[in-house]
């Protein structure tokens, strides 16, 4: 049994245009076509659409959804377990937010003023949506931002895997240099910094040495970046910043 694009849109609560887009980018290609060339979706297609919508609801971008679903080493049960874990975490977060709203309602009714910490405690240290808005606000009008958006829009699963592998390898190099006692201004550390800069230029946007030093400063001045980078090794963000600066100096002096 198969269903038309209109029927599937009705089942899933999405637009026909969305399904056409998923087909165009290869994310959800219908298994069948009618004699007139119209899309026809099978049970397997509906299962895949369900997985796509789960991941989209959890905030995954389309390219990451494709990479996850097309991973030959992953089975459907693994996807369901991952989604269950993520949804459970979201439910817990929403429950905390609901409790915070109830607290605010009760406090307002009783005339109690909540402290700023109490008002925003539920959101924790970092809000991804706020961060995305910050990116748009700070860099949305720059050539680098537009260039990055244009390049990454056409990336395939293999492209993203390559970029991630490159980033992981660079992190391991920097950590190894730190553990070997190499100064941040050593030839080896500056070479790693230069590879980091060239990787950005190759994969995202043209990154000159001046812009690269700005990124290095952000790694230590923005605690969100510092916290993420230092997960590999405490002090890594500062070490990278110093290596980036030393590399820029030797290229611009």
- Give the overall form: globular
Q: Major β-sheet, in short? A: 3 strands, antiparallel
**Mean of all residue-level pLDDT scores:** 79
Order of helices and strands: EHHEEHHHHHHHHHHH
Radius of gyration, in angstroms, nearest whole number: 23 Å
State the secondary-structure class.
mainly alpha
Strands side by side in the biggest sheet:
1-3-2
Poorly predicted regions are: 122-140
The total of helices stands at 13
Fraction of helical residues:
over 70%
Q: Assembly state here?
A: single chain
Beta-strand segment tally = 3
Distance between the termini: 70 Å
Describe the 3D structure.
This protein has 13 helices and 3 strands. By secondary structure, the chain is mainly alpha-helical. The chain has a 3-stranded antiparallel sheet with strand order 1-3-2. The longest helix has 35 residues, at 76-110. The termini are far apart. The model is unreliable at 122-140 (pLDDT under 50).
Keywords:
253 residues, mainly alpha, three-stranded antiparallel β-sheet, 13 helices, 3 strands
Brief characterization of the structure:
This protein has 253 residues and is mostly helical.
SSE blueprint:
Blueprint: E1 3-4, H1 5-12, H2 16-24, E2 32-33, E3 39-41, H3 43-57, H4 62-69, H5 76-110, H6 116-120, H7 128-139, H8 143-152, H9 157-179, H10 187-203, H11 209-221, H12 223-229, H13 236-252
Antiparallel strand pairs: 1-3, 2-3
């Amino acid at each position: 049994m198969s269903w038309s694009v209109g029927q599937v849109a009705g089942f899933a609560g999405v637009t026909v245009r969305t399904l056409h887009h998923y087909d165009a980018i290869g994310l959800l290609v219908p298994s069948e076509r009618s004699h007139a060339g119209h899309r026809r979706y099978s049970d397997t297609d509906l299962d895949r659409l369900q997985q796509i919508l789960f991941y989209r609801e959890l905030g995954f971008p389309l390219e990451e959804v494709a990479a996850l679903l097309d991973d030959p080493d992953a089975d459907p049960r693994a996807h369901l377990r991952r989604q269950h874990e993520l949804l459970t975490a979201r439910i817990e977060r929403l429950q905390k937010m609901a409790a915070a709203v109830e607290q605010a309602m009760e406090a307002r009714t009783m005339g109690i003023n909540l402290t700023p910490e109490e008002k925003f405690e539920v959101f924790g240290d970092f809000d991804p949506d706020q961060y995305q808005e910050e990116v748009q606000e700070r860099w949305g009008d720059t050539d680098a931002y537009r260039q990055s958006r244009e390049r990454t829009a056409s990336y395939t699963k293999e492209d993203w895997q390559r970029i991630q592998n490159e980033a992981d390898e660079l992190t391991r190099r920097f950590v190894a240099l730190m553990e070997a006692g190499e100064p941040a201004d050593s030839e080896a550390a500056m070479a790693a910094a230069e590879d980091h800069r060239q990787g950005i230029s190759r994969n995202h946007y043209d990154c000159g040495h001046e812009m690269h030093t700005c990124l290095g400063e952000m790694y230590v001045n923005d605690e969100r970046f510092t916290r993420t980078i230092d997960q590999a090794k405490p002090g890594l963000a500062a070490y990278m910043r110093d290596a980036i600066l030393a590399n820029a100096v030797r290229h611009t002096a």
